[in-house]
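I'm stuck. Protein, please.
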Amino acid sequence: MNISTNNPILQGARSDLPLFDKIKPEHVLPALEQALEQARQMVAGLTELDDPAWDSLMMPLESLDERLSRIWGPVVHLNAVCDSEELRPVYQQGVASMAAWGAELAQNEALYAAMKKVRERDDFANLSNERQQVLEHALRDFRLSGAELVGKEKDRFKTIKMRMSELATLFEQHVLDATRSFELHLEGESGESDHLAGLPDSVRDAACQRAQADEKEGWLFTLDAPSYIPFMQYAESRDLRQQMYTAFATRASAGDLDNAPIIDELLSLRAEAACLLGFDSYSAYSLATKMAGDVDEVIGFMRQLVEKGKSAAEKEVAALKGFAATELDLPELAAWDVPFASEKLRLKTYAVSQEELKPWFSDHQVIAGMFGLVERLYGIVIRENHDAPRWHETVRFFDVFDADAQKIASFYLDPYARPHKRGGAWMDECVVRWQKPDGSMQMPVAYLVCNFDAPVGDKPALWTHDEVTTLFHEFGHGLHHMLTKGVELGVSGIRGVPWDAVELPSQFMENFCWERSVVDLFARHYESGEPLPDDLFDKMLAAKNFHSAMQLMRQLEFSLFDFLLHSEYNPDSGETVQDVLNRVRDEVAVMRPPAFNKFQNSFSHIFAGGYAAGYYSYKWAEVLSADVYAAFEEEGVLNAETAQRFRQQILSIGGSRDIMNAFIAFRGRKPTVDALLRHTGLLDS
């Protein structure tokens, strides 16, 4: 088979990094089609082996998987960070091709039978633990992908999987397009417009720069988080807050971008797929690869937290309403008033605001300080590399070295919001650590992506403490990927880690953002270089758990909605998705949004991401992470020995070991919720 030698996607798959500076939409489908054709030929040959073993079957399959991920992965990444009209249609075709390939591979009876033969061999017990785990996971995933179905059921399952992939892509595109379709354009005398009243200078400057980039006068506000959140917190114009909130809360809920039909079809298909495999619900199907035992355990876990936090949340709401009525002349606290009133109450109670702290959190200082922290904890060294191919001029690239000066990993950092970039923050795999068949070691490379405001003029980017915490969170995911010791693709880095435990390293990292010794590493005034004053830090720390119970209830509302939607919802009963959400809010919510709110239509985590029947994972993993951090509090926050034990027992193991056993090895016991409740100020609530 002739493989094009000048296609930059294929060239990048054979090199250390993707050639982002050369990839164009017209390269995507030819590269993918050639790779899939070659993959099909290889699989056909592997299924004809008389006596399949690890070296003859599993190792070639790992090589095949790696090649495809190195070809398709950069395209998926570019679709998220550089969406374009030219890329979108070829990406959609690629999604369909990859979904078809996945379904074809997962239901390949001959391949499944060959893997079972490897499992049944006498020398299976002699394989490394990693290889045994890779094979066990592969056999499990075969079963969960319909490999044991026959006839029409097998065909139907394959059709369902392909359609679900299409729908998830369409859902996310609708959210992106709906977010992009709205803008609030304000004009007037510079800085004097009543519409800008209350907005800090940094928010105005960013809005002005946004307008200039769009070749407009005045100020431009969008529904992207760096624009939307501070506007809702500080804008004194209630009418404009209502306008912004309404646009945000109704995204992808009307016209051609309405995601409601997609949600209905996805839920129906997921329920049908789970039923075909013998599960009572899609939630039960989802738990087959997670840490939690069963549906009742997860629901019980969430309702336990509801019981722990709801009364405290109700008290927080009552206090907020009282403050809004007496201090802000808002006798009826609407949804679009909550961020504004909350920020005012925070400021009055603690005399500190996110905006007031921003001058001490410039982008370069925060990044350097975060690097300094992990270098001290784990004995690594991080150095910038200016030679790596990039997809945007503001993207940075770094190499990671171990204590012996050997390079062990690299990562991209793409921190700033911009048009045609998916909202939110995430870490993803670029390259996975793997010992190749020739014995050489492939070094891991991570994508770290955020959506913070970019530098304005000559000023550095100034971030809120919440954004600093978000960066630390994503870097925790990155360390999980980069500090792995895994040598087999299927259990290296975050691969093979149960979804409800994968947030442990990321949430763990957030805790350091509240430690004075760590904050001192990066909190320097961007003009004077002065460290964050003690009084400001003390106020920031005092405000840490401001409305923490309300935030807990909000997360539990999302989590219960997701899980009950995938375990109890039955469209044939006449109940709607909105009815389920309303039922959950009756149980959990302490602030009811207006009836027009269509939050579910932009809930990408569960309808376009990997969190379907798994959003509870954030809280489940937060229990683990809080308990892990408690060990650092007991032994020393910057204790390198504790950090090395954490690295050895949890951070580096990938999916090669049972995560509960790993936790017990680190902590000496099973986890409890006490540390989480203490960290959020709810232990005695």
Remarks:
- Residues 8-148 form a domain with the Glutathione S-transferase Yfyf (Class Pi); Chain A, domain 2 fold (CATH 1.20.1050.40).
- The radius of gyration is 25 Å.
